[in-house]
Amino acid sequence: MNNKAVVLLSGGLDSATTLYFAKSKGFVCHCLIFDYNQRHRREIKSAMAVAKKAKCPYSLVKIALPWKGSALLDSKISLPKNQSLTRGGVPSTYVPARNIIFLSFAASYAEAIGARDVFIGANAVDYSGYPDCRPEFIKSYQTMLGKGLKTGVDKKSIRLQTPLIRLTKAQIVTLAKSLKVPLELTWSCYQGGNKPCGVCDSCRFRAKGFEEAKMKDAAL
After folding, report:
1. pTM here?
2. DSSP conformation class of 11
3. CB distance 169 to 203 below 8 Å
4. Beta bridge partners of 4
């Protein structure tokens, strides 16, 4: 059995839970962390700390998106604060094609090291409305991998694993607790600093999850 897997690790609650879920299923995980000139490096430090705690090797990949186009890449664009979590539309924190780019790196890495699975902590329930976190995107991307890679031609297509995609944040928090995810090491806030801002979408979705799961956030 080939139990190698590549796990996209951002340092947040969802990706850390995904890593520990993959480990619990017996996968030997290789973490992929991205420095894409995002608003701060705090999440990168968290991702590396989570990988080390999980005793998983990681690769830190630095890429540039000089055209920006997102509040996470351009400090001149304001971050959404205290806005309705049920509002429609794609927020200013959407990074154009981010998961397409990240999954392409992950697929390349997986094929190079002979891994059959790529894990991503995409979620389409309590999330900010990013189009590249939806099940239909993942399904389409899976089809593309089967057509565009040597492994697909050889009928050994790399599988995209999205264990959290249909879970609420409360369910993710409960799962993280059961998997003993080091939640105190994770970072979800769109801002940098020593403490989460508490008002950005990511902070508020995280707080909602802990509140509904009736648990205390160890990262606060």
Report:
1. 0.95
2. S
3. no
4. 28
* Separation CA 24–CA 3 (nearest Å): 12
Residues 128, 208: Cα–Cα separation, whole Å: 13
Helix 169-178 with 13-24: angle, nearest 10 deg: 50
Domain boundaries along the sequence of the chain:
4-212
pLDDT tens digits in sequence order for the chain, 220 residues long: 679 999 999 999 999 999 999 999 999 999 999 999 998 899 999 999 999 999 999 999 999 999 999 999 998 998 888 877 877 789 999 999 999 999 999 999 999 999 999 999 999 998 888 999 999 999 999 999 999 999 988 988 999 999 999 999 999 999 999 999 999 999 999 998 889 999 999 999 999 999 999 999 999 9
Spell out the CATH class of 4-212.
alpha beta
Nearest to 63 by CA among 97, 87, 29, 86: 97
